[in-house]
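ARCHIVE CARD
Drawer: 12
Card no.: 0347
Subject: one protein chain, sequence and derived structure
Cross-reference: see card 0346
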Amino acid sequence: MKRTLFLGALLGLISGSVWGQQPHVLLICVDDLKPVLGCYGDPLAKTPHLDRLAARGLRFDAAYCNQAVCAPSRNTLMLGARSTTLGIYNLGTNFRRAWPAAVTLPQYFARHGWRPERVGKIFHTGHGNHDDPASWTATFALDQVVEYLRPENSADGRLTREEAYFTNQRLGENHRLPRGAAWEIVAAPDNAYADGRIADEGIRRLRAMAERPPQPLFLALGFVKPHLPFTAPKQYWDLYDREAFSPAPHQTPPVGAPPYAGKTLMELNQYEPIPQQPPVSAAVQRTLIHGYYACVSYVDAQIGRVLAELDRLNLATNTLIVVWGDHGWHLGDHGMWTKHTNYEQANRIPLIIVAPGVTRPGTVTRQLAETVDIFPTLVELAGLPKPDLPQPLDGVSLVPVLRDPAARVRDHAYHVFPRQRAGQSVMGRAIRTERYRLVEWKQPGQPGDTADLELYDYQTDPGETKNLAGDQPGVVAQLRAILARHPEAKRPIN
C-alpha cells in the first residue's frame, strides 16, 4: 500500500497540476440544495459565505444533476457515470452490487497520493443503502439527517418514519411508525444539529492536515440541510420575515403533460402537519418555504466557518474548492414538493468551482454542465492521468470553461427519472439545451412511437406551464435526434 501511494504521489508530481503543484481538494456536497443563493440572484436568500465563495471563482448558472434523488445523484458524482449507465435509479441499491470493481473519485485520487477523508453525507445512507468504506482513508460517523431537539417533534422521542428510513430500521413497516414534525424552531447553538457538528469536524480535519507531513488532502464534506425536516437554530429562522414568502404562483401541472410525469407530496407527507393529500394550506406553504430558506442560511454559515479556517491556515491558495447541490427542490411550483421529477426546479443545481490560478474571481458561465462532469474536471485540475476505469466515464472536463467562461464543451445536459405508466415502468430521459427541455417517456428498448413526449421552451415559458410537444414537431425532431446520441437506459438493477 505504501509503495502504491508513493508511486501515485510521484506520478502526480511528474504530471503536475494545472498550476504546477499538487492541490488539496475540498468537495462540499449539500443535500437538497437548489440555487436559492444570493449569488444566483435570489432576492430573499441570505447566504453571505457562499456569495463570497462565488466571488472567488466560477459560478455555473446552468448546471444540472443527472437524476433528482439522493442516492443516484451521488453515485453520478462519485463514479462519473450517469444513472442510465449504472442501471441504478433508486435509494436502496448500493452501487457496488452492480459495479463491484468501480473506482470512485476519492479512490482515484488516493491511487495518486491523496489522502481521502469523509465527513457527513457523501454517499447516500439509509433506505437499505450504506457508505463505501473503500473510498476513504478516514471517515467521521455519518450524522443525522432527521433530528429533533424537542421530543414532542419526534413523536415524544419515538422512532419516526423518516428517522427509520435514514437509519435503516424497520424498513418494511415504516408506514406504521409515527410522523415527525416537518420543521422545528429552537434557540440552540449551531452544533446542536448535525451540520454544525460536520463543520466542527471538517475544521479539525483541516487543522490535522496542516500538522501532518506534506500529503495532499481530498476532504469531502457532506451537509444535510436543507433536507427535510427543516430544523435549524432559531437565529436562522429570524433572518427572514415569513410574510415575505409567497406560495408558488402556478400550482397546477403543465397543461398537456403526461399525468404520471409529476408528483405532489411524496416524502413531504411523511411529516406532521402535512396532509396526506393536497392541497397544502397557504400558511403551511409559507412556513415550509421559510424553513427551507432558514436551513439554507444555516448551512451557508457552516460552510463559511470551514472556509474561514481554510483561509486562516493559509491553505486556500492551494485548494480546489467545489460546492455542489445533489439536486433541486420543488417549493410548491406545479403543486409539487421535494424532488423526484424531470422538471427544472428539481434538476437545476448550484455549482461553484474555485481553482486558484485557473478560475478568475467573480466569473459566471451559461455553459451547460452535469454532475458527471465534476470527476474529470477535478482529475484534470490536479494534473492526474485521464482515468481508465472499470465503469464508463460519462462526464467531460469543464477546465476549458474554468479558464474561459465563454467556452462551450456541451450542447445539452442529460438527466432521467423513472415512473410507472399504466402499471409498467417507463424511463423519462431528458435533455436540456439553453432554450428547451425534451423528455421522452418510454420503456427502454421499445420503439420511439411508444413514447410520451414533453417539450418546454424556457425563452417563452420559463415556468413550464404548457407542454409544447404537440405544437412544435420540428423542434421535437431536432431534440430527439440529439437524445438518440445517448444509449438506451440500462434496465434497473435491484
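Annotation on reverse: The first helix runs from residue 2 to 15. The first strand starts at residue 24 and ends at 30.
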